[in-house]
Amino acid sequence: MKQLMVTLLVLVGFLDLSLIWAGEKKQEETPLEIGDHRELFVDDYLIGSLKGAELRLHHPVDEGPVLKFDKPWEGLFCGYSTIIKDGDVYRAYYRGRPTAGADGDVGEVYCYAESKDGVNWTKPEFTLFEKQGHKKNNIILADAAPMTHNFSPFLDTRPGVPAAEKYKALGGTMKSGLVAFTSPDGIHWKQHPAGSVIPTKMVPYKYMFDSQNVAFWSPVEKKYLSYFRVFKDKIRRIARSESDDFIHWSAPVLMEYTTLDGEAPIEHLYTNQTHPYFRAPHIYLAIAARFMPGRQVLTDEQAKEIGVHPRYFKDTSDAILMTTRGDDTYQRTFLSGYIAGGIGAQNWVSRTNYPALNVVQTGPAEMSVYVNQDYAQPTSHLRRYSLRLDGFASLRADYAGGEMVTKPLVFDGSELSINFSTSAAGGIKVEIQDEQGQPIPGFTLADCREQIGNEVDRVVSWKQGSDLKSLSGKPVRLKFVMKDADLYSLQFQK
User: DSSP assignment, residue 354?
Assistant: First the structure.
C-alpha cells in the first residue's frame, strides 16, 4: 500500500522518489558504536559520503639497512622476520640460512637481535646452541626442524597469562603441522606438550603452512587468532583460525578480498603479516608480501653481477597493505604497491621486499615497518621504513577542497582529537550533525575553529569550546570540510 501511495504521489509531481529512498536509507542505518576507539582512514568504515575528497595511500620512507645478515649461520636466505616491542626493548627474530636447501631441513636456525630505539640493533651472544664451530652466537632456536623454517613468535597480551608463557610462537610445515612454543623472555623457548596444535589433517587444502604463519591474542575478539598460508587453485591464499587457549583451534576459514567497489583480484600473497595495530587494536593490519611468479625482471648478466643465487631471480615481489576488522575478509582499499622495489637490480629478485611482522613505534610521532631485502644475495639484510603515527593512509582533499560526512555513529568521550596535516593555505573544519544530517547548534561549520598545521593529536574546538559530553552516547554524524589537507585518524577522548 505504501509503495502504491508513493508511486501515485510521484506521478502527480508531489514527491521526488530518490529523496524518499534516500531518507528511508538514512533512517535505516544502524549507528556505528565507535566508543573511544581510534579510527583510521585505511578503509571506508566511517565514510557515509565523499565530495571532492578521497582515500589516499601513503608510502613509508626508506631509512636504510638496520641489520645485516652477515654471520656464518645467517646468510643469503634469512627471512620470515618478526619485530616485537616489549616495553623499552625491541626484539627482532629471523630465520638464519646461509645456503639453499629444502624447507624445514636441519640447515635452518632462528636468530635474535635487539635494540633500545628500533633504529640501532645489536646481536647478543648466547651459548644456547653451537653452530658451525661457534659456541657464542645469536641463535635462540636450533635443532628443531622443521619448526625453524618459519618460527613466528608474539608477545601474549592476554590478561592473566602465566609468566612462563609470556611469549608464544607457531612454527612448522605441512609435514609437522603448526607446533606451539612458549617462552618466559622471548629468548629461551620450549615446545608446548600439545605439539602440533593446528595439524595438517585439520586444513582442507592440498598444501599449506609454507610461509610465516602468524598468531596473536585479540583484545577485541578476546581469543587467539592465527592467519596462515594455504594453496587454493594453485594460488597462495590465507586462512584464519580461532582459539580460546592457543591449543585447541577452530576449523580454518579462507579469507576473501574486497575493494571499495567490490571484489578484489586474487593474487599470490606469500606472507600475510596480519596483526592488531598497536594504536587501534580493533583494526588488524596486513602488510603482505605480494609474489609475482615467473615475472622475471633481471637478465642473466644482471643476476650474475649482483651475486644472486641462480634459482632466485625468476620472480619478483613487493608489499601491499590490507586490513580486516575480525571477519573473513581483507579490505584491499588500495590495490597498488605499498612498498615497491627500490632502484637497482638487487631489489627485483625472487622473495625480496618481504615485510617483517608488526609495525612498532620508534619516535614520538613516528612508527616503523621493517623489510627483508636483497634476498639470496651476499648483501641480504633487514631494512627500516618510517611513517607518521597512523600514517598508512588518509582522507585527502586537494587545494580545490572537499568534504566527507560520516555514517551515523555513537561515541564515548568528551573531546574530538584528530591526526592531520595541512598546507599553510589549507585547513580542516568539523561540523557535528544529528542522525538525520542536520547541524547541531553550537557545533556547526560556522562555529568551528579551523584546524591548520601538522599534529598527531589536536583537539577540535568550536566557539563554545571543545566539550562534547552533551553529545556522548547519542547518534551523530561528523562533517569534515577540508582544503589541501590530510586526515589520518580521529578519536573521541575521555
Answer: E
